[in-house]
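Long-time lurker. I teach an intro course on protein structure, and each term I like to show students one example going from raw sequence to a predicted 3D structure in token notation. This year I'd like something fresh instead of my usual example. Would anyone be willing to generate the tokens for the chain below so I can use it in lecture? Attribution to the forum is fine with me.
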Amino acid sequence: MKKLLAITLSILMAFSVAACGTNVNTSGKALDTAMVATQNGDVTALQNVLSSTGTSSIDEDIYLSILGKMTYEIGKAKTSGKTAKVLITITNLDMQTILTNYPTEVIKNLSNSNFDGDAYIKNTLVAEDAATITLTATVPMVKTDGVWNVDTTSDITEFSNALMSGLNGYAQSITPEKFLGAAMVALKNGDFATYKSIQPVDTSNTNASDQETFSTVFKKMTYEMSNAVITDNTAKVPVSITTIDMKTIMTNYLTTAFSNLFNKDFDADAYLKEAMAAEDAKTATLTATVPMSKADGVWQVDNSTDTTEFINAVTGGLFDYAKEMSSAFS
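-- Reply from a regular --
Happy to contribute to a lecture. Here you go:
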């Protein structure tokens, strides 16, 4: 995904190069000349631009896959002195639809070292039945020294989104809520490998029996998330979790264990598992704000900050129980 975003930027840079120095007498013709150059995939010009940024190569296959099927129609221009606004309609690969499943594939393969995200994207782009979309945009142009260029000092978001066929909207769809939701689903399904990819936790002291026990708790879990508050590459996601009330279960467990202290037939582990699996087991709803951070396009629970509130909610108040017991014996 990182490569795709870099190529997206590269295409826009190449477009700017194609637009510069276009010695034609109207803004519409200048835009048309730039579109033809971009459509033809002038990778050599692109490389020259990228050399100053430290990028030595570009995946020409992906570049041409994105732009190779593009068609466009330039509409009327509204000119005012040395500035103009040119209407353009672009039909191209529908990047947002094509890549809808990308976050799901990434999450599903977080623990798979053989998953190649770039190969997945490339294969999706070249598919014969790849979806297309038609978008319109108004392109700001400016005339300098008798030459019309795209005015990159103005807001060209609408144009870049049309040129990249909705990729801007797709990028905005990769949210911390999606990754946290995937972690919660993984817990419900007992998929601890995927969960650990989203919240790296140490399970070295947890055996298969322990995981099976907690799977009973997670299986009955339901949750609701509110919109994340995002700041750059960090986020806070409010979540409300309803699951087995472990605080109540552990309180009853301790009482029962003490009353059967000299009963050799009492199986404490079996009692606990039965209590957790009971159909009428009491539930509790707890809220938490989950800290998350993003690296390489992947959101994870940020373990460098305090995640106690989240873990307490996921485990049905187990931390609250431990805290009360600690206070009682201190």
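Some talking points for your students: The beta strands are 71-80, 83-93, 132-144, 147-150, 222-225, 229-231, 234-244, 283-295, 298-301. The radius of gyration is 28 Å.
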